[in-house]
Structure to design on (403 residues):
């Protein structure tokens, strides 16, 4: 399917334009009803329930529908699958508790209504959907996590009634907490993780989830339930997926780079190339001039700790510089050794040549005005000078070699 990225700047949107298949960096797919039947996934109007859990001192099965399944395939080889869920109730704490269990995608069993024997986890549903593609290419889910610790990120839209503030609800919803977590107010953290672009819209953000609470009773019901809801399911969702993609690619880089790799020049060069290519295509400080989108984008970048993670993935490149320096020094040392050997051989040959030349020079030049004895004295002096010079040269070459 094609996404119209209407609020992002052109240099961002062009990279995500699926009509330009040659340059598009992300393709977006949606599971249709025919594929759902073929894969054994209940249709959108069917209901699922979780296992029974304690909620408000009673046993509760959280009931929901799977309205859609989408897949975002990026050129980095990282793909993100998004399940669109509709919950039976609109109680914020009930929804937060349901998400607390459902985000544990490899542990929480879900049951189709009327089919208690067809239990599966959300991860198993995803694996069933992707099973066909394993014949084309091998891949793994949650490659950065240890088995049984896999956790989904959650993006939530919820309508609420008017009240003075929603800190209590956002404490749970933005972290997908169950009621077992006691509410604790933290003004500094709230100022970073809660963002309200208008009186009837408020966002809560954390490393694991983002939630948007809207209040139609404040007067903009038509806009919130129409335009804004459509934008939430398209523009805001796509922005959230882009940021998740950055996080997961950084996890991939950190997973790939091993201890031994730090000394492997070829692998570090390939790592550098992939990292710079990724940063060119997907890492932007400014994605839009629309304040409510850009401000939310900045807060999500902070919540995901992306800047700190970029420092971590750039650390191997410091190692690359060190490896290059050591390699260069070793190569220079080898060249110096070869030069020293050549100079040593030349010095030996020059020593004997100088001896012969000094004898001939002393005899031919000083023979004109010195006696035979005087010539021999000059020759002895020349020999001593040449030997002294040779000793000095040989000692210098020897010291250079040892250093």
């Amino acid at each position: 399917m094609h996404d119209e990225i209407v609020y992002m700047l052109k240099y961002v949107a062009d990279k995500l334009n699926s009509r330009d298949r040659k340059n598009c960096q992300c393709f977006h797919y949606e599971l249709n009803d025919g594929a759902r039947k073929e894969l054994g996934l209940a249709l959108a109007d069917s209901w699922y329930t979780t296992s029974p859990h304690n909620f408000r001192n009673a046993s509760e099965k959280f009931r929901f529908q799977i309205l859609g399944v989408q897949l975002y395939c990026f050129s980095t080889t990282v793909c993100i699958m998004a399940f669109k869920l509709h919950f039976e109730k609109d109680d914020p704490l009930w929804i937060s508790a349901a998400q607390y269990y459902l985000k544990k995608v490899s542990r929480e069993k879900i049951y189709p209504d009327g089919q208690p024997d067809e239990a599966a986890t959300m991860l198993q549903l995803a694996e069933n959907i992707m099973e066909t593609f394993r014949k084309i290419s091998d891949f793994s889910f949650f490659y950065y996590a240890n088995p049984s610790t896999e956790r989904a990120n959650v993006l939530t839209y919820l309508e609420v009634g008017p009240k003075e503030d929603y800190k209590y609800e956002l404490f749970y919803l933005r972290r997908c907490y169950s009621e077992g977590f006691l509410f604790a107010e933290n003004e500094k953290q709230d100022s970073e993780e809660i963002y309200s672009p208008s009186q009837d819209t408020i966002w809560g953000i954390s490393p694991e989830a983002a939630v948007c609470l809207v209040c139609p009773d404040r007067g903009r019901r038509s806009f919130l339930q129409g335009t804004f809801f459509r934008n939430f399911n398209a523009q805001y969702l796509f922005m959230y997926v882009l940021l998740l993609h950055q996080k997961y690619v950084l996890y991939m880089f950190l997973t790939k780079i091993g201890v031994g790799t730090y000394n492997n020049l070829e692998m570090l060069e390939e790592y550098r190339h992939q990292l710079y290519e990724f940063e060119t295509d997907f890492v932007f400080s400014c994605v839009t001039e629309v304040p409510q989108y850009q401000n939310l984008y900045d807060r999500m970048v902070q919540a995901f700790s992306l800047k700190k993670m970029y420092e971590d993935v750039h650390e191997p490149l410091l190692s690359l510089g060190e490896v290059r320096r050591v390699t260069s020094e070793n190569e220079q040392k080898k060249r110096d050794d070869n030069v020293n050997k050549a100079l040593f051989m030349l010095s030996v040959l020059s020593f004997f040549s100088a001896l012969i030349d000094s004898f001939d020079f002393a005899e031919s030049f000083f023979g004109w005005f010195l006696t035979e004895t005087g010539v021999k004295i000059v020759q002895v002096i020349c020999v001593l000078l040449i030997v002294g010079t040779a000793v000095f040269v040989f000692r210098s070459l020897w010291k250079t070699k040892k250093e």
The two ends are 66 Å apart (CA to CA). The chain has a mean pLDDT of 85. The first strand starts at residue 26 and ends at 30. The chain has eleven helices and twelve strands.
